[in-house]
Design brief:
The structure holds 2 protein chains of 2 kinds. Chain A contains 8 helices and 2 strands. Chain A is mainly α. Mean pLDDT of chain A is 78; it is low at 1-36. The radius of gyration of chain B is 27 Å and the shape is globular. The chains are: A mainly alpha, B mainly alpha.
């Protein structure tokens, strides 16, 4: 399936790559680039964009694929927005996320796109979610798309002390005792 | 007169005081003997077989799966009617060390072949403990042992005993706590390790040429515990052996399940550290036996095959249709659903290794995946001094094909990838059907038994003939 998607997007990616190479060289600036928005983003570019946004060198490709298709399903214009975001970040040589505030001040419309991507990776779902574990049948706002469970990034910062629900991290009844590291935490 | 009475009273007081102190001295002596008997009974693990889980101690009724059929263990409480309350010390001794109870010959499922090496003092202490301190259980085991012909004729054990019982008394090493000598006594006599850990010949007697080289118990594999660094436990440290016996687990090596978990639960965790050290020291001296073809220890499969988190971490189809379908046989998905919540997605176990890693683990690294399959089927239950160890049994949740699939996944990713499990293997182990012996060898055994009995009769006839000749002279 992934192979098909890559094949279908081949032309655009090539075009995009050409743009990325040519545009800075002729100093057309971001306005000119924005005038020719791409309407798609390759899975590889989405993975790199995600890695940039969440500040990680490695992210899982399969999870990335689920995030991209989930976000696209909820917003058909998402690939174009993501593509523009990635191009702008590269065009402006934004080194890392410490400079994101300055960047998003220049591009308020791109801030929202960035947040939806980050939120899909951290929360493990995208779209609107009514709070139920299982999407309610026929619920008007529940269009949540599954992205990841154990791989959701929100668990990572506290994984030494907290538990991914249903994944044990200690002995039986471990929740009864506070973690040993609590004094240091 | 008054002074006489006074003297008399004083005399009486002195005499009764003496009698009383004598009595308490005797009581203290008895108590010491009983305590000693209780420790020996613990170390001999009498509880594991003579107590049916959920029933009073030593009431019997526990089922031992043997290749010939189930053997139901008798009541050995102090009940006069159903237990051993009426037995004399001589009868107790004969049952314990020779396998002949007042009710008839015992089967060698009772480790009398090892207990034959017990010292007289220890046998006495055990008798005092069982006859005086064990609470009577006033009912017999519900089931009865029914073995197929000819094994239901207990007298055949006469010939077997003649051939396979070694009555050498092993020095107890009691004066040398923690010594190899003490360990030898514990391993070979009291703790009867060889009952499970020594391979057996076709007559179900221990192969004396390969002591402790590994055996089979109701489908489980009791591993090689000789000093061989690859097939045995030669590469384990003394401390690791002690920890294993106490906790039933050593990080990065092995966990006890099945009968060994029972031995830890009922016996080893109560033993003195010096005795555990003695066992560890002795095991280090047992001549190594290498399993031909084995190149590295079972626990040495250390590198898991990584799987993309995205593959493991997938959305479950929660439609009612898919929920009804519990028949998937994809090992990976079964692993994620049934195993990963404790052993973690990449098989690394929990950080404290309470739920052990599936790599560096004898259960998954063995060339014989019996113990892995049986752990999945029957679960693990082990009480230790620091709490309960528990793995659920999946025999009612997963079918044979599913257990084979998940076991294969585990072997492939975390253990020895050359080991394979088929649904037929699972079926055999599920029903504790160790009958491959029976089917293949029953004729040999009957044949062998006939020969043994014949030989015994021949020996008897010859000796009778000789005696008569001597008399005639």
């Amino acid at each position: 399936m992934r192979a098909n998607r890559v094949a279908a997007s081949g032309l655009t990616r090539r075009f995009l790559l050409k743009c990325a190479a040519v545009i800075p060289a002729v100093s057309l600036g971001r306005r000119a680039f924005a005038a020719q928005p791409s309407t798609d983003i390759s899975s590889q570019d989405f993975l790199q964009l995600s890695q940039f946004l969440v500040g990680r060198a490695h992210l899982d490709e399969i999870v990335a694929g689920r995030a991209l298709s989930g976000l696209t399903l909820n917003d058909p214009n998402f690939p174009g927005k993501a593509s523009a975001l990635w191009a702008a970040l590269r065009a402006e040589n934004v080194a890392d996320m410490t400079h994101f505030d300055e960047f998003s001040a220049r591009h308020p419309e791109m801030r929202a796109t960035s947040i939806t991507i980050i939120s899909a990776w951290y929360l493990g779902y995208c779209g609107k979610y009514d709070g139920h574990a299982v999407p309610a049948v026929g619920h008007p706002v529940d269009n949540a798309q599954y992205v990841a469970y154990a791989a959701a990034l929100m668990y990572a910062p506290t994984i030494d002390a907290t538990v991914i629900p249903s994944y044990s991290r200690g002995r039986t009844n471990y929740w009864f005792y506070p973690p040993k590291t609590i004094a240091r935490d | 007169m008054a002074s006489f009475l006074k003297r008399l009273a004083m005399g009486c007081a002195v005499i009764s005081a003496c009698a009383l102190s004598l009595g308490t001295a005797r009581a203290a002596h008895d108590q010491k003997l009983i305590d000693r008997g209780a420790y020996l009974a613990r170390s001999g693990d009498c509880m594991a077989c003579h107590t049916n889980p959920g029933h009073p101690s030593y009431g019997g009724g526990y089922k031992i799966t043997s290749p010939f059929g189930d053997i139901i263990v008798p009541n050995i409480s102090s009940s006069k009617k159903y237990g051993i309350g009426n037995w004399t010390e001589k009868q107790f001794d004969r049952a314990l060390r020779q396998g002949i109870s007042p009710r008839g010959y015992l089967y060698p499922a009772m480790p009398y072949t090892q207990y034959a090496h017990l010292s007289d003092a220890d046998t006495h202490a055990l008798y005092v403990y069982f006859s005086q301190a064990v609470e009577p259980v006033e009912y017999p085991p519900v089931d009865k042992t029914h073995l197929p012909f000819p094994f239901n004729i207990r007298q055949i054990m006469f010939g077997w005993n003649l051939l396979f019982t070694d009555k050498t008394v092993i020095p107890t090493g009691e004066d040398k706590p923690g010594s190899v000598e003490r360990g030898r006594y514990l391993v070979r006599a009291l703790a009867h390790c060889s009952a499970c850990h020594t391979p057996r010949n076709i007559f179900m007697a221990e192969k004396t040429s390969k002591p402790l080289a590994g055996g089979r118990v109701g489908g489980w594999i009791a591993p090689n515990i000789t000093s061989d660094p690859i097939s045995g436990i030669g590469s384990w440290t003394e401390e690791e052996i002690i920890t294993y016996l106490r906790q039933g687990a050593v990080e990065g090596k092995a966990q006890a399940a099945g009968s060994m978990a029972e031995a830890v639960q009922h016996s080893f965790r109560f033993m003195q550290k010096s005795d555990l050290r003695a066992i560890a020291r002795y095991l280090k001296t047992v001549p190594p036996v290498r399993d031909p073809g084995q190149e590295k220890p079972d626990y040495a499969f250390q590198n898991p095959r990584r799987v993309d988190i995205g593959i493991l971490d997938r959305a479950e189809n929660r439609s009612p249709g898919s929920m009804e379908n519990g028949k998937i046989v994809i090992g990976e998905r079964l692993y994620v659903g049934a195993c990963a919540s404790c052993h973690q997605l990449q098989g690394q176990g929990t950080e404290d290794q309470f739920y052990p890693s599936l790599t560096s683990n004898t259960a998954t690294g063995s060339r014989y995946p019996n113990n892995l399959v049986l752990a999945i089927l029957k679960g693990v239950h082990r009480r230790t001094n620091t709490g309960m160890v528990f793995m659920p049994a999946f025999e009612d949740q997963l079918d044979d094909a599913q257990i084979a699939a998940v076991a294969d996944y585990v072997l492939n990713h975390f253990g020895n990838p050359s080991a394979r499990v088929t649904p037929a293997d699972v079926k055999r182990l599920r029903h504790a059907d160790v009958g491959f012996w029976t089917v293949r060898l029953i004729s040999n055994i009957i044949f062998g038994t006939v020969i043994i009995v014949g030989l015994v009769i021949l020996v008897l006839v010859i000796s009778l003939f000789r005696r008569r000749r001597r008399r005639q002279r």
